[in-house]
Amino acid sequence: MLGCAPYDASVKLFIFGAGATYGTLGRRGVKGFGRELAARVPQWRTDPLYSALVSSAKAALRTREPDADNWDLDVAWTHLDYLAKLRRGLDGLGLAFDDGQASVAIHRAAAAVYSPLDCAYLSDAWRGAVLFTLRDILKEVRAGDVVVSFNWDVLVEHLLVRHRFCGTSLRFVQAPHELSGDVVTIVKPHGSLSWGREFPKAGDAPDFLPGPAPLLDPMLPAEISDRRQPLVLGAVPIKSELLKEVQWRHTFVHRRIMEQWSALCRALRDAEEVQAVGYGFPPEDQYGLFMLREAARLRSRACRVVLYEVPGRRCDEVAGHLARLLEVGDDQIRRRGPVRAPDFSGGRPIRAQVADAAFYRWRESHSAHGLDLDDWFRAERDFGLS
After folding, report:
1. Are 254 and 302 in contact (CB under 8 A)?
2. pLDDT for 315
3. Angle between helices 315-326 and 286-296 (to 10 degrees)
4. Out of 66, 149, 202, 353, which residue is the most buried by the measure of CB atoms under 10 Å away?
């Protein structure tokens, strides 16, 4: 076992998962997605933009209760994906299915939930909130670090480029591109709603990452069609983008996604500190876990590990994954509590700001980021934050 040595980390790897978006914007990941979509597009079932999604949403209902919005995106997307890939075996059953329209509908649904960013809110939170976890984390990013977001949204990139290093000489580069000088590399292994993938009627599709600058403008539902869609890896077991043979007309798709994973794996092999922020090692990403394990096996030195809690109180499970992956003891992983963000609804400050000054001083003096979760939650209760 390598273990965690007490040293100052000079190169850090930051890994952001769905919990980062949930803790900041309150938007669920794939679980409970139906309610997120209904909250943003109440009439989506009768909207022609989403018509191809209705039957799969019904198949993905989490319970038999009459709650038509209680469905999970991974189940619905897998249903559509299997119909597209296995429909030949269902010939003769009279199923009406158009895989092109299904792809458009599912991507529009993802964009409806995850593309919008309240930039004014994020700006106010960055400048004025006492407890804003993503700001605290991103302020640790330095030149040479690697920032990985498994999320389809552009929340992390937006905060980095628009706020963390705005007006500085530090530059950002989207993997696999490289730049000289003070650079932070951004990696998106699951693609991004800002990566516009084209579907030409003839010939190869063009590259959607032609330059080194990160793309920060996500596609909106109305912009998505059968000719142009965001490149995001669906929440499905068999991801076509990973199969070179399937992407023969879209060579840049397979290449660019593999380059994202290559950048992540190199960073995992070399980093002296790994921070996992709301990433829960989802079971449908077994292929990704395989690549991460292979990269971690090549590590030659100790690694410092920091974990921010994922939703659903799965912190122990995720800590176990990290401990096995990086060969550290579970008790050597620094747990920094959940991802928090301010709530300015109704013009009132967040709960945490009711006692912000006192709690902030307590956190700094007692290094609450390094305490066990029980101590963290106890402190929140003491200050009236929960």
Report:
1. no
2. 82
3. 40
4. 149
